[in-house]
Design brief:
Number of strands: 0
CATH topology of the largest domain: Rna Polymerase Sigma Factor, Chain: A
Radius of gyration: 19 Å
Strand content: under 5%
CATH class of the largest domain: Mainly Alpha
Structural class: mainly alpha
Helix content: over 70%
CATH architecture of the largest domain: Orthogonal Bundle
Order of helices and strands: HHHHHHHHH
Largest sheet: none
Number of helices: 9
Length: 184
């Protein structure tokens, strides 16, 4: 971790130093926004989630321990957990139904069919992923949405490379089975 970043974190932990908090957020904002956007494919929602992620981060920063994980890793864990919570929320369940209805009113018939199928597929994937443990979700989403390599995933979640590969292929096979069951 950069010395400047460590100084910002210590100042925030010590007395809630606002300027340090703003600099820390500014440093990671684009990265976390991209992370959220790849999960929801909606710019406004990704901005909202990003803001909520940083609020959670600043609320939890007194518990941050650089001996356990780097700040970036810790921040991404908060972001992952927040996105997972969002997909489990009633707001997500309601919005996906509302989005389809609003889009039907604006699009032609062919586009509507395509949009409905896309929303159904995303909803089915998210529903199926909820049956997985958090680590398997991180591996699947990291590989498919974030385009991380197996090596990057292994470093991110602190597992051996061979374990990450095994878990990924096993989880993909399970996800395929879950989706086939949902589509019957």
């Amino acid at each position: 971790m950069f010395d400047v970043e460590k100084r910002w974190i210590r100042r925030i932990q010590k007395d809630g130093h606002e300027e340090s908090a703003n600099k820390l957020i500014q440093k990671y904002y684009k990265e976390i926004f991209a992370f959220a956007y790849k999960r929801v494919f909606d710019q406004q929602l990704a901005m909202d989630l990003t803001q909520e992620i940083f609020i959670r981060t600043l609320q939890a920063i007194p518990q941050f321990d650089e001996k356990k994980a780097s700040f970036r890793t810790w921040l991404y864990q908060i972001a992952q957990n927040h996105c997972t919570d969002y997909f489990r929320s009633k707001a997500f369940q309601t919005s996906k139904q509302t989005d389809v209805v609003e889009q039907i009113e604006m699009d032609g018939e062919d586009e509507v069919v395509s949009l409905v199928l896309h929303h159904q597929q995303l909803a089915e994937i998210h529903k199926a992923l909820q049956a997985f443990d958090l680590q398997d979700q991180q591996i699947i989403l990291g590989k498919l949405l974030d385009d991380l390599t197996f090596t990057q995933l292994a470093e991110k979640i602190h597992l051996p490379l061979s374990t990450v590969k095994t878990k990924y292929y096993k989880a993909i096979k399970q996800l395929k089975s879950e989706l086939e069951v949902l589509n019957k």
